[in-house]
Amino acid sequence: MSVPGWQGRYFEDFSSGDVYRHPLGRTISDADNTWFTLLTMNTAQLHFNEVYAEQSEWGKPLVVSTLTLAIAVGQSVTDTTQNGFANLGFENVQFTKPVYAGDTLWAESLVLSVRESRSRPFSGIVRIKTRALNQHGHEVLSFVRTFGVYKRADDPFKSAYPTPERPIDGDS
Fold it and tell me: Which helix (H) or strand (E) holds 115?
């Protein structure tokens, strides 16, 4: 018997006041930071030049703040926008402590509001506050995000999984 894995939340599953502790932590490496500076054409030497960064008040390179934001958003997807179709806005993005290569980030989100969409009857609008914590429990980032999410009955992707040509068996 096929048992579905986690399918994510639909509009009906969100309630104001709910807090989701996103399950996956992520340790940031020097390579992550270097690649992100290259991909985004960030030329601030504080992120990739150790000699330069040693002269700063932090004494070592900082992780690019938008990488920290991208990781926190990504960590939240499994609980928030797995069935979303659009980010509608980011507000009040605050980087509250520096992040360094070797830090492990965790994220959690608080549902601030939930409402039906006025223009897309197949969906709703959810507004959340997300924060990222480092391995010491210090908040390093917080932001508010608004997104559109499908209603369960109207998810156009719920049948995207292909039908196997034969059942899976236990034989190797």
Answer: strand 104-116
What are the boundaries of each domain within the chain?
A: 13-154
**Token pair of 4 as six digits:** 């579905």
pLDDT in tens, 13-61: 999 999 999 999 999 999 999 999 999 999 999 999 999 999 999 999 9
Tokens standing for residue 125: 């609008």
Question: Which residue carries 């992707």 as its tokens?
Answer: 157
If one counts every other C-beta atom within 10 angstroms of the C-beta of residue 169, the result is 6
- Greatest CA span in the chain, whole angstroms? 62
Whole-angstrom distance, CA of residue 141 vs CA of residue 25 = 15
Helical H segments across the chain, by residue range: 30-39, 50-54, 65-77
Q: What are phi and psi of 73, to 5 degrees?
A: -60, -45
Q: Give the CATH fold of the 13-154 domain.
A: Thiol Ester Dehydrase; Chain A (3.10.129)
Measured CA to CA, the distance from residue 131 to residue 108 in angstroms comes to 6
95's tokens = 């980087």
Task: Please report, as a single letter, which amino acid is at residue 58.
Answer: W
pLDDT in tens, 144-156: 999 999 999 988 8
CB neighbour class for 64 (10 Å; exposed up to 12, middle 13-18, buried from 19): buried
